[in-house]
Amino acid sequence: YKDDLQPTNVDTHTYIFPSDVVDQSDMRTSITQSPTYGPRMLDSLQAVPSISLITQNSSFLNEGGGNIREEYPASIEMIFPDGREGFQEDGGLSNYGGRFTNFRKKSFRIAFRERFGPTKVRYPIFEGFKYQHHPPAEEFDVINLRSGSHDMSSRGAYMSNRFTDDTMLDMGNIAPHGRFVHVYLNGRYWGQYHMRERWSADMASSYYGGSKDAYEAVNANDNFRNDEEVYDGPGRFWNAAKSLVLRPDPFNEASSHIDIANIIDFMLVWVSGDSESEFRSFGSSVEGVPFKFMIKDADGYLRPASSGKAGHPGPLNIMSEMRGGLGGEDFRMLVADRIHKHFFNDGAFTPINNIRRLRVRTAEARLGFISESARWGFRSPNSWESYQANLMNNHFRGLTDTMVSRFKSNGMYPDIVAPVFSQHGGSVMPTTPISMSSNARTIYYTVDGNDPRLPGGVPNPVANVLSLRSGAGANNVSNPLFLRSPTRLKARAYDTRTGEWSALNEALYTIDSEPANSRNLVIAELNYHPDEPSSAEESAISNDRDDYEFIELLNTGSRNIDLTGVRFDSAVNFAFPDNTVLEPGERLLLLRQRIAFEARYGSLPNIQTFEYTGRLSNDGERILLSGPASQPIMDFTYNDQPPWPAAADGEGSSLVLLNPDSPGESGDPSNWRASRIPGGTPGEEGSSGLDYDTWSTANNLEGGPQDDEDHDTISNFMEFLQGTDPLEFTIEPVLILRVDALDVGNAVRQYFVISFRQSMQALGSLSLEISDDLITWNSAQELTELLSQVNQGDGTQMTTLRMKQPTESRSGPLFVRLRGQ
Hints:
Elements: H1 18-22, H2 29-32, H3 41-45, E1 50-55, E2 72-79, E3 87-96, E4 107-111, E5 121-122, E6 139-140, E7 142-146, H4 160-170, E8 178-185, E9 188-197, H5 201-208, E10 216-220, E11 229-232, H6 236-245, H7 250-253, H8 260-270, E12 279-284, E13 289-295, H9 318-324, H10 328-343, H11 351-376, H12 381-409, E14 420-421, E15 426-428, E16 436-438, E17 442-446, E18 464-467, E19 469-470, E20 476-477, E21 487-494, E22 505-511, E23 513-515, E24 521-527, H13 536-541, E25 550-555, E26 560-562, E27 567-570, E28 574-575, E29 581-582, E30 587-591, H14 594-601, E31 608-611, E32 622-626, E33 632-637, E34 655-657, E35 672-674, H15 692-698, H16 716-722, E36 735-744, E37 747-759, E38 766-771, E39 778-779, E40 784-791, E41 796-803, E42 815-820
Parallel strand pairs: 1-8, 15-22, 23-26, 30-31
Antiparallel strand pairs: 1-2, 2-3, 3-4, 4-7, 5-6, 7-9, 8-9, 10-11, 10-12, 12-13, 14-16, 16-20, 17-18, 17-21, 19-20, 21-22, 24-25, 24-34, 25-30, 26-29, 27-28, 27-32, 32-33, 34-35, 36-37, 37-41, 38-39, 38-42, 40-41
Helix pairs in contact: 4-11, 8-10, 9-10, 11-12
């Protein structure tokens, strides 16, 4: 090294050659040379992203060795098979799990700590998957790589933990996000893994705000016993929660410390499978986040559960303590409500959604699993496939009804039938009759969002009462309702003799709406690279220019559209809440940060606004807006390079769709323009620009468009199109023609380069024309290539093009001119 200089940091960059991986000695030739699977190996190794782990501690490569609990320096890279940019960071590598087992394929944990490098990896690791309620975070201090453990062979087929995480998320709860990846350890293929968030204080702060130091996280093993470990935080909030569970009225007294709906959902999922009784939990007294629970180890879950498990008392005996306390009647009602929400209608635990959830993950893992089988051989691809097929064709088809029957047997769900709606939500006309049926004779319902039942079991005085008549079959039927406006209908059946209530049924109704699709919904404006904060008000909120991003959506149809289930599957993380309705011609805004947006643009009380997580790429990226059936509504890739409008790339303008009513190919840059107003026009139709007559009047011109008011040889109309002063003599030429040496196709040649100024407000256009003889003029569009469009900061932009052919290819003169129209 040179004197007084330090060596640079060590950079790691992995190159994976799939054909060499197939030939590694660890790979089973029964798979790699199989006539069925061998030809698919290269595709299998590129079916999911790859994680490359590089470490100097060779003990990690010892399949027969024990788990390494101490953290050792390592590099982690995420590599995508399609070539998109991943990440590389340094962290601490260790094994986790396996306290009482020693699988050859071990799980890994990567912790990002200051002694290894950055304290977080900042990358959208889990983007690209549908999450209705909790889009994934983009910063992580720990990442787990789960091997599959018992689920690899003896108890399941690699899917249990991913399935239970997804189920809790679908129920509206927080749970670790995940994805399947291939893992390489010092260049050796180590199998397909479940890459997963780690349930911790850091994860809690990512989703509920505040510092991770404000949270406590708890780990408990073996039959939910009460010797749990508080591994983040001091444990005072957790100990207080445990004490409150033992109070005379734990349902009401512990509700600020324990998320009761969440623990019920946790138990409903856990008792419906066959996994170990272990959990993790986090909460914060400072942030007002009651403890939330997750299934820690779901290995073996995808097997039939024992019939006696449904009434399990749960962690801290919460279920039995709350059931027997003073608020027990209200707790039991909430349990019934959560069962009805998830096990009936279109609930998360109905057969169709259980099957869908597993089918999606099976499709994600299927091709990559061939490589997993070749590496470890715990299951053959055929055995793995058969296991999943049996779950979808048999197990899940009867599981929901089986569990509801068990819940009833354990007193968790009443025999009185919750009201059944003749149409369960969706679009209705004002003349559409909505009737309800039950085995009871009385139904209480509300249309204002209130529960028809008050705590203690008293009917809500704001609820409406329906008396039912005998109908066809076993249930009684009400007279119809007619809804005049979007409504959330909530109803319970009531037995006037016993005072028993049914579970709550609720549904959302829109009036004369249609689902969002590519014919009625567009992204009309996009501020992907906002200008820097410029005012004191903005700087007081945020100096991060990305916080001023926005996306504008527009209903181009003639009917209300229901945005329920509409989401972004690429670029940002956002899914519309249920019952979001956009009227014809109405716009709504998605904001990265509401308070930053309002500091720049003010509040927009008449516009629906929502916040997304993530951020739009300043360099351009794919945007995929999907409908409720996962159909693409708008799918395009914008860019910050020509021919995309340069003024939208951090120069103060937004990106505006030229013709929202007939958008054409949204990925075609010619269908977009930079906004004429700095910052764009969020929530409004983009400015139509400045017409010539308005401009002429504003400048007090006496002559017409072809006159030259300032005698500089440039007509008034050309001054209008170029954004110059029509009353000030200028020596700036209309266009500039020069010869530049340019590197094109790895060869430096001389090219004609043409530049001209263009107004960003003027309603009109400038086009370049070329001639060889000053007689015949032709458009230069096919003969030139755009080099740049640079915002001049005065309402104009400088457009620069080059001739496609180098000067050496031309013979004879070249004439160019600008045509304004």
